[in-house]
UniProtKB/TrEMBL annotation:
Region of interest called Disordered, as start-end residue ranges on this chain: 1-67
Ranges annotated as biased composition (Polar residues): 38-47
Keywords in alphabetical order: Oxidoreductase
Organism: Ganoderma sinense ZZ0214-1
Record protein name field: FMN hydroxy acid dehydrogenase domain-containing protein
FMN hydroxy acid dehydrogenase domain boundaries: 87-491
Pfam families for this protein: FMN_dh
GO terms assigned for molecular function: oxidoreductase activity
Cofactor list: FMN
InterPro entries recorded: Aldolase_TIM (IPR013785), FMN-dep_DH (IPR000262), FMN_HAD (IPR037396), FMN_hydac_DH_AS (IPR008259)
Length: 493
């Protein structure tokens, strides 16, 4: 306790000893408490409240071996003190994926949509394999007891470098759909990127998300400028601070899992609620914006919708007809250009982030265009099978002098997704130059299994793992490793 602020992990304080604070020094919100079981087991005077010398079952006292000091890694203690096992059945990504598959066994189309990839899945595998090409070189005997993984993006400080990736049509996965994800992100203060293909309105998602976490809007932008401007206005009014422009999905890729089952929920009005709640679009269709009660329900059952349509069910008919009209506006095979991005840039006051760039040349164009940031991503291998893995793309991009200078100037932010499953994946992406990473399918698997609580568990898994890995590798902060691959990684032989 040299600095007088905290005990070392692994050392149990005698009962009654005034125990100084671990990081963060004071829980500032309910979610801080929730994130840091180290704090939840303290009574107000700082003495152990539920575990320790007075604990009826000494085996429940995990403050020694399971202890870890840190906002996220304190979650380890929660896991060790739960003899029933983790909420998602495991903390292993592959086992969680299996549990989600089992849970969705009656919706094979929805599972194929979530799990599936473009083509043979080669790029998805390449995304994962690329991480193993880099190995962490841990440093020892450095005082990294108190770690802080806060990360500042576009002037806002978040509690970690993790963001929630935009995933559309979540009503196919769980009854609470995007609202569960938004609540989980809000509870943990993790920024949320809301899909333009959501099955709930931007406003309902914002309400569920609350004021804490920060949210960005990912636009699939309509051909009509009137509708686009309406979406931008609504996003701004609902507190979305950054605009993410996904440019790798002008058409949906060649996805065998969806093609084999004719799985396309959008044509049935599932995943187009951003459009169906838009006053300008709906006015042009001669309708009122759809109310939240009209949002699609879980499970998505195409056969049932066809029957309802044939029977003349009003809402079903209306949704299907409106889906055709909205489909002509977005993701309809019309390829956009930088000219179109300029329109968005001009009409959005906050940061604009382009998602889905992989080529060094495209990143350099983004810099010339005055774009604020990019997400290096291949959409999780769901668009161009056989394409470069996202991590290899990041490596190549970071070799560009122009990119390095733009990033160093603080005016250009580089984010990363596609393949993040563990804490060491986050570590390696940051070391290779990313300033933040997006979590994709793992949180959606959590949603499938247990709704909001499942999303929270998925987030806590990767962040606890990341914070532990950071410390065990000898580092305290994101700045210690960000862009420092030369110091903290080696290329595997
Ligand atoms: C079911 C599903 C739906 C998705 N929907 C969107 C979307 O609406 N907009 C978008 O920009 N990306 C979308 N993505 C891509 C994710 O944002 C992210 O890039 C991808 O999931 C990263 O790959 P990973 O999940 O393998 O890590 C979707 C991904 C999945 C799995």
């Amino acid at each position: 306790m040299r600095d007088g602020r905290s005990s070392e992990p692994g050392i149990t304080q005698p009962a009654g000893t005034k125990r100084p604070h671990a990081f963060p020094p004071h829980p500032t919100s309910a979610s801080d408490l929730y994130c840091n079981p180290a704090l939840t087991t303290m009574s107000q005077d700082g003495t152990p409240a539920t575990a320790g010398a007075g604990s009826p079952d000494p085996s429940q006292d995990q403050r020694s071996y399971g202890a870890s000091v840190g906002r996220w890694s304190g979650y380890v203690r929660e896991l060790f003190s739960n003899p029933n096992g983790p909420l998602l059945g495991s903390v292993e990504p592959d086992k969680i994926e299996e549990a989600a598959r089992e849970k969705l066994k009656d919706s094979p189309g929805a599972w194929g949509f979530l799990y599936g990839n473009a083509g043979t899945g080669e790029t998805h595998r390449a995304n994962r394999n690329a991480f193993a090409r880099w190995q962490i070189v841990p440093r020892m005997l450095r005082d990294v007891t108190h770690r802080n993984v806060e990360t500042t993006l576009f002037g806002v400080t978040y509690p970690s470098p993790l963001l929630i990736a935009p995933i559309g049509a979540q009503s196919c996965f769980h009854p609470d759909a995007e609202l569960a994800t938004a609540r989980a992100a809000g509870a943990l203060n993790v920024p949320l990127v809301v899909s333009g293909a959501s099955s709930r309105s931007l406003e309902a998602i914002a309400d569920a998300n609350g004021p804490n976490s920060g949210r960005w809007f990912q636009i699939y932008w309509p051909r009509s400028d009137v509708y686009t401007l309406s979406l931008l206005r609504r996003a701004k009014a609902s507190g979305y601070s950054a605009l993410v422009v996904t440019v790798d999905t002008m058409s949906i890729g060649w996805r065998p899992a969806d093609l084999d089952r004719a799985f396309l929920p959008f044509v049935h009005g599932v995943g187009i609620q951003v459009g169906l709640s838009d006053p300008e679009f709906m006015k042009a269709q001669g309708k009122e914006p759809h109310a939240e009660e009209d949002a699609p329900q879980f499970p998505y059952d195409a056969a049932k919708i066809r029957v309802l349509y044939a029977q003349g069910d009003r809402l079903t008919r209306e949704r299907v007809e409106l889906a055709a009209a909205w489909g002509k506006e977005v993701v309809n095979g019309t390829y956009r250009t930088w000219e179109d991005v300029r329109f968005l840039r001009k009409n959005w006051e906050g940061p604009v982030v382009v998602k889905g760039l992989l080529a060094v040349q495209d990143i350099e164009i983004a810099i010339d265009e005055g774009i604020d940031g990019v997400i290096v991503s291949n959409h999780g291998g769901r668009q161009v099978d056989g394409s470069i893995s996202s991590l290899v793309a990041l490596e190549r991009i970071m070799k560009s002098q122009k990119v390095k200078e733009a990033q160093a100037s603080g005016k250009f932010t580089i984010l990363f997704d596609s393949g993040i499953r563990t804490g060491s994946d986050i570590f390696r992406a940051l070391a290779l130059g990313a300033q933040g990473v997006l979590l994709g399918r793992p949180y959606a698997y959590g949603l499938v299994i247990a709704g909001q609580a499942g999303v929270e568990a998925a987030i806590k898994n990767v962040l606890a793992d990341f914070e532990l890995t950071l410390g065990l590798a000898g580092h305290k902060t994101v700045a210690d490793i960000q862009g420092k691959a030369d110091e903290v990684l080696i290329r595997a032989e």
